[in-house]
Amino acid sequence: MRVSIKNVKEAYQFKHKHILGIEQLSVADIFHILDTAISFKEISSRSIKKVPTLKGKTIINFFFEPSTRTRLSFEIAAKRMSADTFNIAASTSSATKGETLIDTARNLQAMNPDTIIVRHGSSGAPGLLARHVEASIINAGDGTHEHPSQALLDMMTVREHRGTVEGLKIAIVGDIAHSRVAHSDILGFTKLGAEVRVAGPETFMVPGLDALGARVCGSVVEAVTDADVVMALRIQRERQDDPLIPSLREYSQFYGINHNLLQKHSRPDVLVMHPGPINRGVEMNPDVADGKGSVILEQVTNGVAVRMALLYLVMGREGGRG
Amino acid sequence: MTTVNRLILQNGRLLDPVTGVDEKGDLWVEDGVIVPAQKEIPENSEVYDVHGQWIVPGLIDMHVHLREPGEEYKETIKSGTRAAAAGGFTAVACMPNTTPVNDCASVTQYIINAATREGSARVYPVGAISKGSKGAGLAEYGELKQAGAVAVSDDGLPVLDSQLMRRAMQYAGSHDLLVISHSEEMALSRNGSMNEGVVSTRLGLRGIPAAAEAIMVYREIALAELTGQRIHIAHVSTGAAAELIAQAKARGVRVTAETAPHYFTLTDEAVGDYNTNTKMNPPLRTEKDRQAIRKGLQDGTLDAIATDHAPHSVLEKELEFDRAANGVIGLETSLSLSLALVRDGVIGALRMVELMSSAPARILQVEGGTIAQGNVADITVIDPEKRYVFTEDSILSKGKNSPFLDWELQGKAVLTVVGGRITHNELT
Q1: Tens digit of pLDDT for each residue in B63-89?
Q2: Is there a single domain that holds both residue B44 and residue B134?
Q3: From the list B199, B201, B323, which residue is nearest A122 (CB)?
């Protein structure tokens, strides 16, 4: 049977029960999520910011690592869609009482939630949960593996400003090795046809970044040259077991993103991004963070829309659980 | 299990790396000893026609963890040696990281007594290098040896203090004990949970670089050279380490080495979707390393195949990958995976038997490793064609943590004989 491209497009159906990473998503999936997010974005600007879409659904925010903005962003997203949300932080959960992740998951499952949003320090932990519960799992950051909702909100923000992601040059500067945001962004932006360049001291690099699709640059200047987007990653203030940089002071001098650097090398309309929270004056100077190209706060706004879309899509799947 | 006076194996392919024999023939056993064949088969003989099968000296696994005493929920001497017998092994050397650590004669004696009482294979205890394997102060090698230990090792934990390792080699030499090194530079491997490379980056897991092994292997070689003593390198996983060992052997350093079936069969790609049954230390490496290990088995750089059989329960394995315990079981798959090397043309049948029997016997200075007349009747009969699916239900070890679950394997031990006593029998 012949199927025209148009028919294929119409036949598209979002079929993921879990959102574990960008790796699992096709280009069509990503566009579908971003298009859904755009349609939800308007809800957040109404005076009554609530729709009944997920009324009666139960969502658990299960955070094994401290997080303010991601947890809040998911919670707001869920509440704007009328779902019931519950928060569990690691300090109040059984994790500290020696219960295994699988046992905890089974106990949560016994309360019949529809979706569990997980942040966990161990890479792969959301996938482990997904194998042991009936609920949908959304990965809100696992170890140094993936942070898919962050990458999706980054793609949404860039797409809104440039109309497309294809062909753009995206520079990510910072601790690439230990950043799940960088990992998911590399996968996502390259899937959509952008060139992703990464830069930082060699101690921030790991083997195989090129296999993920990134272009590993020898210098920050190389990375930001003609860049459409420059993203700086938060520098961890302490990492005692493995010294990666001598000091924040030296880091900011050689790898910090500042106005002069961008003005000299990047496109005049370069977008400045940061997954937050910013160490001002370390990885990014205030002149850039607050400058005209900065879309950092739009990222936060779009984060709510993307998370509304993800919650809607995993729970509203056709033929999903009743 | 039956004890027989006389066991006769007919029409098999006799393989003996010590004598170089590779010919069709019969093997006779009387009262636990290999004897010349007679013209007439006496009454009360147990006779098997093993046409098309191999009769080889009993396989010896020089690196296993039997977990007893202290972690009997993972494995016991009884269950571990049952698994050994099913895998074609007539003897195993068990590592000292039990609770308590086997760092004294009484623990060694306990293991030997338990093995004598309820074991299905000979058990050779390996004592600790340092007291409690804490890396400071020598264990009492003289008494360990007297009690029956065949080697010393702090396996699972590298000896970080080079002076202690030097003294261990010297003092072990005085008691004619082998030192076995778990070669790992901890500063490089700390917090790592798989090989450092493309796959660890994709999965977001902290990597262990190949250099962590090579650095320590080089130290052991330098210390063996300094002291003039023997050193045996456990579970070689990298091409870099194999190359160092080859160079040292060429210089005449008294170094021997083993590798495990998972290193010549799998690569770090096998970790897949965080499968904790592929997590072990040292970790699965790259395809280039796997090829180097196969070449090392072929050219003599690597002397022995040992499993590093490390049973764990689901308590240690059904966890987040970085929190799961290291180790995989191996006794019941080692022979099949090694036979694949023969089928692939990497090594010949005699060389395989040398790697799995004669060489471990020689390195540990224990009996076995040959089926020449007059030797102890430790014998394995192998059906090289037998196909089976390795299922969790079939595993005799208490640990089910194998990366080869549900693999279709070819070649299996069908009869295992320890000192004339049949410990495993699939012949009918």
Answers
A1: 999 999 999 999 999 999 999 999 999
A2: no
A3: B323
